[in-house]
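Q: My labmate handed me this sequence with no annotations at all. I'd like to see what the chain might look like in three dimensions before we decide whether it's worth expressing. Could you predict it?
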Amino acid sequence: SDLDLHQVFWTNVLWFAVVVVTFPLSRLYLKKFNPDGARDRSILEDAVLLWKAATNLMVVWSYKNVLGALSAVFLESWIGPSGMPSSPEHLWFNSYTSRNVYDVWIYIGSQFALLFIAMAFALLFCTGLKMYQASRQERGLKAGFADLWLKEPPFLLGIGLAQSHIFTSGWYWFPAAVVRADVSMAVYTVFVRSVCGVICTVVITAITKWHRQHCKRERGKWDQDTLSARWVWALWIELFVRALPFCFAWQWSQTCFETYFFGWFGCQWPYEECGKSTLWMWVFYCALFMFVAFHTVPKLQATAQTMQQLEESYGKTLCKNDKHLLRSQLITNQQFATFFSYGLGWGFTSVIATECKQHITPNCPESITASNVFYSVVTTIVLIFGVFCSVSHAFLGGFRLRRRADMIVTIDQGCAHQLFGDIDNDSNGYITRDELSDFLTANGLESRGPDLFIQAYDTLAGQHEEGVGITELVRQFSQLISSAKQEKERDSQQVLLEDVAIEVNSNPVRSGRSDESAMNGFDDKIRVSPRPATVTQPRQLKEQEMGATIYL
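A: Here is what I predict for the chain of 552 residues:
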């Protein structure tokens, strides 16, 4: 609060420079900690992985803050101290005076300028990374963080924020004259936010459809590994399009904020000063949002996958007339699934920001003294390692357990080829012993006893220099699985026969029958056949249970 907008901007620039410089060092030190795989991990390992992921997110978030501060500088310099093209008395709706209309156009122009600056800096930064990557590759070295940032540029959130501000301009065009005093203002604000969200959805869907079709048509011409003018132009388009999900998520997040805070509690933007209950409002918002996301995202992803399969398989035949509709539905579902992920993250960051602003804990001291700094550091450590890391460890532990169980079910259902396809890291159609061992270790599938994976590999090893073919390995592994199931079934039946024999010997006369007749009568009901019996539905269920028992 003691800094003006220019000082806030340069403070954010300084912080962005710090995290950009320190991120490669952090990644170099933590490179041996790999989040891939479904093996169980200790809470210390998960804490390190959480910190590793957070350092990259710090770069993403700090760039967004730089652009937000730069936008505030533009608006204050070109519009006035309020920084908005209207007045708070009308909730920044348009009175359609000449000054108001002029300010709206200034706002739109400033946000286009902000978008251009954001993309130009990202383009220059990624071009430098590309040159660094090329020089490293010439010496036979890996580029490390450059490979990561070229694959997932850390500037997309900031670019998406600038894009979102352009769509938000629809708010400032809404006429203030239609607002009635006897109607709740929340009706108008939620309506305007929803309209902005719908316009954003339509535009983003159209742009994404064009981009996917264009990239599909131009593949092999634009996707070049070497630095060139065509590569730079392709990167410019990629940055713009790949930032659109963030723009979409921000627009609809603002709609949810407006509905929840202003519609229910009468708390206006930026929803940080809603009284003493502000923190609890944000906590319950996150809980409600998480509940909806938990039940909605799987359905959206399943529907999107179905639409994609229909488009790829029948887009030119049975679904030819619905091809564009399928693609639009696919893109919309993917965008909303992304919105729930990002929206939940913004909700949690708002919880921390509200707690910091209200000084509920010593995390954000009001004054800088030695004691306040000490208490702040202790509180931060407790929050990070005592709360966030514990919750993350519990969540990731359950997620990895489900992944391991899914792998076992995949094997048991005879779909082992799906699993072995993931083992082939270089995608040459062959699996080496190192690839197999690394996969088993990473996913917690290694066995202390006889391992069917290794047995299947050793049986076929030596046939090819590249390793063992995936098809042959799947066939051999399936045979071992079948043999293990049959052996398990024979052992179970043998144990059952021995139990019955003991029971008959202990009671030799039952209903006037001798031992031999009793055993023969039982043998008519249960026989151990040297050949596999015809598989029926109960038998399949029994084999699945045995297969799961073998691996678990």
